[in-house]
Amino acid sequence: MDLIEHAAAAGTIRVQAQDARTVIVLVGEIDAALRDEASACMGLALVTGDPVVIDSTQATFIDSSGIAFVLQLHLAASEAGIPVTLLDPNRVLRDVLDMVGLSGELPAEPVTSV
Asked: What is residue 71's DSSP assignment?
């Protein structure tokens, strides 16, 4: 069940309730055009208190704004005691997290578990 979906010209962020978890799905180009939508999705994801899974398998591009969203979500969730994992992180996201030295901050889980 989609809780919220926002779309820009080339990207979308969806928040879904799924198996007692909140899944944030990144689709297409995740960039500054989605800044307002990212903020709304972050608030919705954290309000439930359920574990958060970031699914970036459909992301084709992620810029610094997208990385900032992922890291801010991780930090806010950590402060609230909410675990955040990456669902089979797309190479695009994994490469950028590696580049900035944060690949170990968010644990990954295989696609089959969600």
From this structure: H
pLDDT of residue 4: 47
Average per-residue pLDDT in the chain?
A: 85
Answer whether 24's CB lies under 8 Å from 11's CB.
no
Cα dist from 16 to 13, 25, 103, whole Å: 10, 8, 24
Q: How many CB atoms lie within 10 A of CB 113?
A: 11
Report d(CA 76, CA 11) in Å as an integer: 23
From the list 54, 58, 50, the residue with the least C-alpha distance to 72 is: 54
Predicted model pTM:
0.83
DSSP-derived secondary structure for 80-114: TT--EEEES--HHHHHHHHHTT-TTTS-EE-GGG-
pLDDT in tens, 55-89: 998 999 999 899 999 999 999 999 999 999 998 67
Give the span between the Cα atoms of 52 and 21, in whole angstroms: 6
CA gap 75, 100 in Å, rounded:
16
